[in-house]
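Input chain follows. Return structure tokens only.
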Amino acid sequence: MTVNRPNMFSGIPIERNDGTISVLCTLPQMADALADDWPSNGPMFLAALAALVGERVGCCSTREVHRAFIAAAVEADCLPESYMKE
């Protein structure tokens, strides 16, 4: 039996400015991370914000948001090195 868990996926670790690592597992956590002192405001950051809004209104999938968020994290250089090796 498969349980449907909307807005959840495997966690994405994010290294904060203070060196701590947070693992984000839900779309609201990703939205909060982008809104709270995200270290970049480049095009991938804007694409991740747009994907979150798109998911909310039904024109983006959770997988698309997940990919856009990872791209924004790469752009901002806040993925831990161990995650990048996987």
